Amino acid sequence: MSQIVSLPEDFRAPAQAPSLRPTDDPFELLSVGAMVRRVADMAVDKASHPWAFLVRSLVGGAMVAFGVLLSLVVSTGVKTPGVASLLMGLAFGMSFALILVSGMSLITADMSAGLLAVLQRRMSVVAYGRLILIGLAGNTIGVLVFATICAAAGGPYLGGFAERAAAVGVQKAGQPFGTALLLAVLCTWFLQTSMCLFFKARSDVARMGFAFYGPFAFVIGGTQHVIANVGFIGLPLLLSAFHGTAPHTVIGWGFGSHGLATNLCVTTLGNLIGGTVFVAVPFQLVAWLQQPAR
């Protein structure tokens, strides 16, 4: 005589598939309020785990350096400025997508996300400052480690590539203070807007598109990004240090008129202004104004 075995409730097929609520639509964007909370969540999590955040920043810096290297490779030998910028942007675009999808960290994103957490009273100003310092240090070291390996390798990174890297490095480092500052503001206005839209989107396709747009836009726009510039300026310096045949230019490591340290200070300030004043504050203000009256 056969015995009927009853399946556990968790394994039984539902009588009817649940209907999809409007808020479950993968193509419907989240509200601004939900988006700023998600972005702030990211900053709070990073601040709560400083050692993990440092490692995430190191890896994120290396990912930016991926884009620096590839953008220089594809633009080497291209004489038309617009075409060269377009190719650089296309090659650089996936760097930010890699960082966001992998959960690694980029200081310019942390500038905006951290301020949102401060405005929501979920992070202190001191913790925000610590977040910026750890992220900046980790990203900078990550870029320089990757760039050092590339420079030491030589090979395809000499000749025309080295000349292209030197030209871009001189151009980035040689801009006047006001120009570099305002271009850095524009950079994070592009980049952090795309980050916010990444967290606002529900579908993977939309997120990838928004993540790609930010670095694509700031590269083809000729703007200044503090961590990307560590790669663009540091790589030709390292090439000339490892190889006597590489171009030796006016750029240097210090605080001179074409110094990497000078550019680091100026672009950090500009990126901070762009990502906070022009992105984080307006989005948080919209979220507050859209709250229902109590």
Identify the notable features of this structure and list them briefly.
294 residues, mainly alpha
Describe this structure in words.
The chain is mainly α and 294 residues long. 71% of the residues lie in helices and 0% in strands. The chain has helices at 32-48, 50-75, 81-92, 94-102, 107-119, 125-153, 160-173, 177-200, 204-220, 226-242, 260-289. It is globular and about 65 Å long.
How many strand segments?
A: 0
Query: Span from first to last CA?
Result: 66 Å
Q: Percent range for helical residues?
A: over 70%
Shape: globular
Share of β-strand residues = under 5%
**Largest sheet, described in full?**
none
Radius of gyration: 22 Å
How many helical elements? Answer: 11
Note the run of SSEs as H and E: HHHHHHHHHHH
Uncertain runs? 1-22
* Overall mean confidence score, pLDDT: 91
Look at the helices and sheets and give the structural class. mainly alpha
Subcellular location: Membrane
Transmembrane segments: 51-74, 86-119, 131-157, 177-199, 211-239, 259-289
Main location: membrane
Keywords: Membrane, Transmembrane, Transmembrane helix
